[in-house]
Amino acid sequence: MRLSRNRAGIGAGTDESRGFDHGTFSVMQAMRPEADLPVVQLSVRHDMDPSAHLLAGKALAPLRDEGILIMGSGLTYHNLRLWGPAATQPSAAFDAWLQNALVAKTSAEREAMLRNWTQAPAARVAHPREDHLLPLMVAIGAASEEAETCVYHQDEFMGSITASSFRFGEIRG
User: Fold this and answer.
1) What 3-state DSSP class applies to 117?
2) Which of 4, 100, 104, 134 has its CA at 20 to 30 Å from residue 16's CA atom?
3) C-beta separation of 127 from 114 below 8 A
4) In sequence order, what are the residues at sequence separation of 6 or more whose Cβ sits closer than 8 angstroms to the Cβ of residue 31?
């Protein structure tokens, strides 16, 4: 593994022996089955710090001007132990909070809410561990001054879960 510090002062390294995580290959395989698009995957930090992930997105933001897509994959509800009808209420409560935080707030308000996401209704039920939520924060950081749009919303995903997807800013390049 090679380690270095980038212009944003964030320590970074590469591990060429590690393959893509399912959050990358499952999305990219559906989008580009020909695998003809270069992809770089980032790992979430071990400390799971929301502020650090927002800052990582801000460091990546200039890449958008070069036509590079910054994508954070995950799910607005990710509790594999609580699935089915028992997930209906907590997934809806957390998704409603997320909709409000992402779509209805200013950039500063949105980031403040995300830094304190564990205070959201049903936060730890929806995400017992935040590893599937943090990629969203990187994407938000990369487009922090731009408007968010909910591009997908379903109240009965997999039969009972409320789930949403968002786009940040306009498509560039």
Assistant:
1) helix
2) 134
3) no
4) none
CA dist., res. 160 & res. 85, Å (int): 6
HSE toward the beta carbon, residue 77, CA cutoff 13 A? 32
Count CB-CB contacts under 10 A for residue 114: 23
- Given a contact cutoff of 8 angstroms between Cβ atoms, the answer to whether 107 and 145 are in contact is yes
Q: Distance between CA 10 and CA 5 in Å, rounded?
A: 5
Q: 10 Å Cβ neighbour count for 113?
A: 18
Per-residue pLDDT of the chain (173 residues; tens, 9 = 90+): 444 556 666 777 777 787 777 677 677 778 778 888 887 777 877 898 999 999 999 998 888 888 888 888 778 889 989 989 999 999 999 999 999 999 889 889 999 999 999 999 999 999 999 988 999 999 999 988 888 888 889 998 888 999 998 888 776 55
How long, in residues, is the chain? 173
